[in-house]
Design brief:
Length: 628
């Protein structure tokens, strides 16, 4: 990774740093980083899942899938004879485990419950429902095919596994497979994933799992009530293809039995942190994080991000110790564990320090999945970070580096709303921290995510054998954004960007229920006026004055957290963000509420959440001139 560090150092060498007026130098001990060997999460457990495809009258097709700890074994056919059952034994990695995790403060260890068994036995008609989106299920229902009690066969993609299970409309079980129209790899390639519609330990939702002897298990509202299993495309033969493909069949006539046997056992995970303390505002910190472990090889998912994380930590440390760089704010480098289970390591950390994180952690940058191709740049983030991403890409494009040839010369970055399975989503929607993920991709998406084919050779092929160069470019982007966030006088969070997002969210609600939305429209106006006050304060203030600068930054950094609804429980509704979360409290859900009493309540709560955000930006209560 010398190329990463060299490219990043070359880029930042052109930047000018203005040290704050302090007489002391950054001590070497403040720049320590604890290195931990990237390793897979060791789970000494075995999951067993079996399903039978049973025609009603003639013959029987029997398939058996068994998951073990060996992540390198492939699916092998062990029995196949004419007129006999076709039996498969699968020894892929342990992607069907339902593990219950607990966190200990002192050593940052997460423990699982004592060994116990979870058993499901479901029988129903097999129905193919494309990707399992609401519009896909509506098509099936219009064909007069009964979904209640059925076993849905769904294609991977478009939405997360958890969302597929959540919207399954009365189905008794869900099977998910990679369709050959979308994924061209071998038909016996197994998928990894989880179906928890949430994040963190699913048995301590909303609170940290420090010591599980003190906290009885509390089931997350996001855990599915029905079994779900990934299968190979070979096992789904006869149902492959989209709605308009000739091989496509809706099904609904053959019986299928899904039997799931899980064993839950104790294990532990570790989060690893390194800190470079700031010189002016050390209590405000930026976190740069990456998932360290993976179910399979996890080359693009975990390895690349971990390498960049370590090299950025080393580069920043050397800049402080050797080049005299003095960041105004602190930088925390975080290596998360158990990311594959729903960002368990990161979420438990957020839950542990919920009362203080929102006042100190002002931005999170995720390095997961940084490189998945070449030629395109995509990002998902809080609207507060849109401008920073845009200016960073312009800076990187204009830098005379040979690495720029691997990035297409588009005028702007492609920034999309953050999805629920994004590693940065818990920071944004659960904790109210401005967060971002970004990726270098090809026109064709990287198909090996969530499989054991996510290895160095496949990523190198996807990047046309330029993985190292593109990784260096990604490190440059992350490094430049981090520099601006920790060193500029005013933190690079653009509150203007939320005005457009709020307008877009409020207008559909207003069009449906005009008589009830006067309060909401007024709250939107209050928010926009507060944004103008922030802009005026920045323009008219002496930003070299540390006290003035800190007051402005306090107003800016509080915006995201104030958009978390205080009226819902993080135990029942973890993603409390008014605009980017999930649940009946969001502005997006107001237009779908049919019960008028519930609509009145949710509208009032959403209005006061938005109004409260505007008060935060105004600052002191004696500066608030809004009529209540």
């Amino acid at each position: 990774m010398e190329r990463v560090r060299g490219a990043f150092n070359n880029l930042v060498s052109d930047c000018k740093f203005f040290s704050p007026p302090f007489s002391y130098f950054f001590p070497a001990t403040n720049a320590q980083f604890i290195l931990c060997r990237p390793a897979s999460l060791q789970l000494k457990s075995e999951s067993y899942s079996r399903f039978n495809l049973q025609p009603q009258v003639e013959g029987e097709t029997h398939m058996e899938a068994k998951m073990s700890d060996d992540v390198t074994d492939d699916v092998t056919q062990v029995e196949s004879q004419a007129g006999a059952a076709t039996r498969f034994e699968q020894t892929s990695s342990d992607h069907n485990k339902r593990n219950i995790c607990y966190l200990s403060l002192g050593t940052l260890l997460v423990f699982l419950l004592d060994c116990c068994f979870v058993f499901f036995y479901i029988k129903g008609k097999l129905v193919y429902a494309n990707y399992g989106r609401l519009e896909d299920l509506d098509v099936v229902l219009k064909k007069d095919i009964e979904l209640n009690g059925s076993v849905l066969l769904l294609r991977k993609g478009k939405i997360s596994y958890a969302e597929k299970v959540q919207v399954s409309k009365g189905a008794s079980a869900v099977l998910i497979y990679p369709d050959i129209q979308d994924y061209k790899y071998e038909g016996d390639t197994a998928l990894y994933g989880h179906v928890h519609l949430g994040c963190g330990d699913p048995y301590t939702p909303g609170f940290p799992s420090f010591n599980h002897t003190l906290f009885p298990p509390t089931k997350s509202s996001g855990l599915p009530e029905i079994p779900a299993q990934t299968i190979t495309s070979n096992a789904s033969s006869g149902f492959i293809g989209g709605f308009h493909m000739p091989p496509y069949r809706l099904g609904g006539s053959k019986n299928i039995t899904v039997e799931v046997n899980n064993i839950l056992v104790n294990t532990k995970i570790r989060n690893v942190f390194g800190v470079i303390k700031g010189f002016t505002d050390p209590d405000q910190y930026l976190v740069i994080g990456a998932q360290r472990d993976a179910w399979g090889r996890g080359y693009a998912r975990a390895n690349v991000g971990t390498c960049v994380l370590i090299e950025l930590a080393r580069a920043f440390s050397e800049m402080v110790k050797k080049d005299g760089f003095r960041p105004r704010r602190s930088i925390v480098f975080a290596s998360w564990s158990a990311g594959e289970y729903g960002n368990v390591g990161a979420t438990e950390w957020l839950e542990a320090y919920m009362s203080t994180i929102d006042k100190r952690l002002f931005t999170y940058i995720s390095l997961d999945g940084l490189v998945m191709g070449r030629g395109s740049f995509t990002a998902s983030s809080s609207p507060l970070l849109y401008s920073l991403i845009e200016t960073t890409m312009k800076t990187v494009r204009t830098h005379p580096s040979v690495l720029i040839q691997f990035l297409s010369q588009t005028s702007s970055a492609n920034v999309y709303p953050m999805s629920m399975d994004d590693p940065a989503y818990p920071f944004l929607a659960f904790s109210g921290i401005p967060s971002m993920s970004f990726h270098f991709t090809s026109k064709n998406s990287y198909p090996y995510y969530d499989t054991n084919l996510d290895n160095m050779d496949h990523l190198d092929y996807q990047t046309n054998h330029h993985s190292s160069e593109i990784t260096a470019l990604a490190a440059q982007c992350a490094g430049v954004m981090a520099l601006r966030l920790v060193h500029d006088h005013v933190i690079n969070l653009d509150v203007n960007q939320y005005g457009r997002i709020i307008n877009k969210a409020v207008i559909p609600v207003y069009m449906r229920i005009k008589k009830l939305t006067n309060w909401l429209v007024e709250a939107r106006g209050s928010f926009l006026r507060a944004v103008e006050k922030v802009n005026t304060s920045i323009s008219n203030s002496d930003l070299n004055n540390e006290k003035t600068c800190r007051m402005i930054n306090n107003r800016i950094t509080a915006v995201e957290h104030s958009l978390l609804s205080p009226y819902v429980s993080p135990t029942q509704t973890p993603f409390r963000h008014l605009l980017l979360g999930r649940g009946p409290h969001t502005l997006a859900s107001l237009g779908r509420i049919r019960d008028m009493e519930q609509l009145h309540v949710q509208l009032a709560l959403a209005t006061w959440t938005l109004q409260g955000c505007s008060y935060v930006m105004v600052g002191d209560i004696w500066d608030i001139h809004e009529q209540i």
